[in-house]
Amino acid sequence: MKKFINSIDDLVQDSVAGLVMAHEDLLALNETPLFVCRRTPKQARVALMSGGGSGHEPLHTGYVGFGMLDAACPGQVFTAPTPDQIVAAAEHVEAGQGVLMIVKNYGGDCASFQVARDMLEMELATVLVNDDVAVEQSTHTTGRRGVAGALVVEKMVGAAAEAGADLYECKALGVRVNANTASMGVALTSCIVPDADAPTFDIDPSEMEVGVGIHGEPGRYRRSLMPADDIVALLLDPILKDLALAAGRSVLLHVNGFGGTPLIELHLLNRIATQRLRAEGLQVKRWLVGNHTTALEMAGASLTLTALDDELTALWDAPVTTPSLRW
User: Fold this and answer.
1) Given 56, 140, 254, 292, which residue is catalytic?
2) Strands 47-54 and 99-104, how do they pair?
3) pLDDT above 80 (res 17)
4) What CA–CA distance (Å, rounded) separates 241 from 245?
5) What is the percent of the chain where pLDDT is above 90?
6) Is 154:69 a contact under the CB 8 Å cutoff?
């Protein structure tokens, strides 16, 4: 195993500190307990926060800023943040209009955020993200996993919060975006957790794991490597079945890399997926391509589709300024 590490115990803390240093105009660091928040003063509106295990960067810390999150709580690698992190972050960003927690559907994340909710004395609401159509149950979840769709929820709800939507309007919007979003991924290699001396799973160079989770959880099945056209079909078929969109519907296509896949390949997948969606009678109106919800250095990618209407398109297009997403 070769990684840039001094101390495994300090890796997350030091990495987050480096992120904040690189974006000191946007971000502030709370060292103990660890969380990242906006540097700008609190405003009288709903505050948005999220969090989860590290190793998925830029999710979630890279999306703190104008138009998205007010705070993010990074846990250790592939490990949920602790309730005290969540409590401290919520108390820091709450500005009299309540706090909306955006939580990916993993057992540890859900438990930590629920304990924190029980400890907090403020108006709170939660949106549970469970966009992964690969499997209904996994070793980390009860029900579908939350994956790259979290970014879409954070972006659209963040825009609504900036525009003055109240807590329950933001929650209802987040639930609607999640219900209109579906994702599925494929892995070509495993990742290596920093405190492990071996890959999370073994996979032959000629194989791929279809429906893999972002922690290396198994997917629907393993099979021989296929051409990119066929891989896109394997990912899009269950997504389209899940969303059951009528011809003519507008969609956002998010092609996400898992950390070890170069952009030349991600853009190839984008071209293939866009052509397939158009052949299905759908109108691809917006795109996002890049490494946004990663699994350390795993080679692989996921496709996320969000059904759009005029409101959701406007919320996606609304200005955003974060370390990893801005327009």
Assistant:
1) 56
2) parallel
3) yes
4) 8
5) 93
6) yes
